[in-house]
UniProtKB/TrEMBL annotation:
Pfam families: HTH_1 (PF00126), LysR_substrate (PF03466). GO terms for molecular function: DNA-binding transcription factor activity; sequence-specific DNA binding. One of its GO terms (biological process) is DNA-templated transcription. This is Transcriptional regulator, LysR family. It comes from Lutimaribacter pacificus. Residues 6-63 form the HTH lysR-type domain.
């Protein structure tokens, strides 16, 4: 096989299958028929002289040869992105599509307004927010960058702290008006508690109730907005982000002098993306915007 036998389009299809681990998933990414993706992968494997994927009912898993090709394919992808950025880029403005992955609390209560302000200054920019109650997988290119509540311990990643944020026990006035008063931690016994489904807590930093000493959760969800809606509707007491409180009606913090939690947001990016000026500039605007928005909303809570 000569260097002329392998083209960017081959690598583009290979990357889509590697990241989605299926022909149908790759077809959605590429907007082509899955059968066409399968034929292209088969031809690529024939030209490479080695199987790139192990096929099974569970999907397409990369072989050792596929893993070796992945390194070079991602480098080619980064080189092409950098070239397009330099050719198309306009000094002082951001354009093109950027996808951000984030836990659903940040994605619902912070990112919409922060990203809207960035886009007002950059009308050619397209932003996609992937809100997931789990860690976003950057290695599969689920997003260009991700926000997390704890820094990853492994991987070739760029990690920077964005800002701290605070959480408190809170409840709706409609709930507090019809239940016994809470003046001490012991008074929480007998009250209905709202929180995460224990076996679906995807990051130890989210295990708020264990830290407080609460053992039983009467109303549970893996979604922060669901928990907050329950609180707003008078369903019970929950640990609430201070930055979410202004979006509710009649939400009151409980025992703020006794129970106050602090967590942090981190921006995580692919290490190879450090050379992409467009993403660097967007990251700066995003971090500055998130820090300012957390401060603004917490001041209102």
């Amino acid at each position: 096989m000569t260097s002329n036998d392998l083209h960017w389009d081959d690598l583009r299809i290979f990357l889509a299958v590697a990241r989605s681990e299926s022909l149908s998933g790759a077809g959605k990414i590429l907007r082509v028929d899955p059968a066409t993706v399968g034929r292209r992968i088969a031809r690529l494997e024939e030209r490479m002289g080695a199987p790139l994927f192990a096929k099974s009912p569970q999907g397409y898993a990369m072989t050792d040869a596929g893993q070796r090709l992945l390194v070079h394919a991602e480098r080619a992808e980064q080189a092409l992105a950098g070239a397009l950025e330099e050719v198309r880029g306009q000094p002082g403005t951001l354009s093109g599509q950027i996808r951000i992955g984030a836990p659903d609390g940040c994605a619902n209560y912070l990112l919409p307004q922060v990203c809207m302000r960035i886009m007002q200054d950059n009308p050619d920019l397209e932003v996609q927010i992937v809100a997931l109650p789990r860690v976003v997988n950057l290695s599969r290119r689920e997003a260009d960058m991700a926000i997390a509540v704890s820094p990853p311990a492994t991987g070739r990643l760029l990690v920077q702290k964005i800002t701290d944020y605070r959480l408190h026990l809170a409840a709706a006035r409609s709930y507090l008006d019809h239940h016994p008063p809470i003046r001490a931690l012991d008074d929480l016994r007998g009250h209905r508690i709202i929180g995460y489904i224990p076996d679906m807590i995807f990051d130890k930093e989210l295990d708020y109730l264990h830290e407080i000493g609460v053992e039983r959760v009467a109303m549970a969800s893996n979604s922060v907005p669901v928990q907050f809606n329950w609180v707003c509707q008078g369903g019970g007491i929950g640990v609430v982000h201070d930055f979410a409180i202004p979006s509710g009606q009649g939400i009151r913090r409980i025992l703020p002098d006794l129970i106050s939690l602090t967590r942090s947001f981190y921006l995580i990016r692919h290490a190879d993306d450090r050379r992409l000026e467009r993403l660097n500039r967007f990251a700066v605007a995003l971090c500055d915007g998130l820090k300012a928005e957390v401060q603004r909303l917490e001041a209102q809570s």
